[in-house]
Amino acid sequence: MTRLRTVYLHLVLIIGFVLPAAMAAAQQENNAAKPKQRPATVTPAPKNDAWWKGRHEKMNARVKQGNVDLLFIGDSITQGWEGGGAKEIWQEYYGKRNTVNLGIGGDQTQHVLWRLQNGNLEGISPKLAVVMIGTNNSGGNTPEDIARGIRAIVRTLREKVPNAKVLVLAIFPRGKDNQDHLRQVVMKTNEILAKRAAGSGDVVFLDIGPKFLQPDGALSKEIMPDLLHLSAKGYKIWADAIEPEVEKVMGKK
Predict the structure, then answer these.
(1) Are residues 28 and 101 in the same domain?
(2) Which CATH number does the domain housing residue 219 bear?
(3) Alpha carbon of 52 to those of 128, 155, 167: distances in Å?
(4) 231 and 140, same domain (yes or no)
(5) Total count of domains within the chain
(6) Kind and range of the H or E element at 203?
(7) Catalytic-residue membership of 229
(8) Pick from 130, 140, 139, 111: nearest CA to 52
(9) Which of 207, 226, 231, 240 does the annotation list as catalytic?
(10) Same domain, 2 and 66
(11) Nearest CA-CA partner of 168 in 136, 206, 198, 138
(12) Nearest partner of 153 among 163, 135, 168, 136, judged by Cα
């Protein structure tokens, strides 16, 4: 009886140690067999929106005309160069530089990726592409995934327009101050981008965000009336801040 009990205890111990390990190994093998799901930020996707598609097609039509040396790529903040007092600043800095605005309001990194792969770069060889994207991802994606999306955009540019220099701008600050949740997501994303910025002259990372802020990190409504989109004064700050990098490639305005 004692011997049977000893055997039984040994079996219990063996099962207790071996079975969980075997199950864990099987789970790991099963996980390895499954393809890793790509983050939405790096998966090219169009928007099912008539206005969005219309603007995309208009940009493609402009690109087909050729004579494109400078690109601005982004979301509504980039599209905003076309409105209000920003138009005059755009004309002053970029009017004679064969510049095309590839900004669409509401775009996230995945939408830009799709556009770049579906006509926005077709048949052109720009000298410089200025990229500022990612703020619309801040409400639903991690800083790591947003940074992956931005890097995917840079890779696409390097593949499709290999002669172009790429100026990647840190995502502009948003929200009232540094305590704002979305501001923090943006800041963490920029930290990741800065650490992994390419060292070659073909891709430059530049953070001009501090130029929009007060010394304590507060964002003035004079610069961003809704604490996200720029005023004409904000666009002037943007243009002045990147001009040294633009001049290196495009020459003086």
Answers:
(1) no
(2) 3.40.50.1110
(3) 25, 24, 25
(4) yes
(5) 2
(6) strand 203-206
(7) yes
(8) 111
(9) 226
(10) no
(11) 206
(12) 168
User: Do 80 and 11 contact (CB within 8 A), yes or no?
Assistant: no
- Which pTM was predicted? 0.86
Q: Is 138 a catalytic residue?
A: no
Catalytic residue selected from 76, 177, 180, 202: 76
Catalytic residue among 56, 75, 107, 229: 229
pLDDT tens-digit series, residues 143-176 = 999 999 999 999 999 999 999 999 999 999 999 9
Q: Are residues 230 and 189 in the same domain?
A: yes
As given in the structure block, the two tokens for residue 75 are 């979301």
Residues 6+ apart with CB under 8 A from 188: 143
CA distance 115 to 69: 18
Domain that holds residue 74: 40-250
pLDDT at 119: 98
Length of the chain: 253
Residue 166, helix vs strand vs coil: strand
The answer to whether 76 is a known catalytic residue is yes
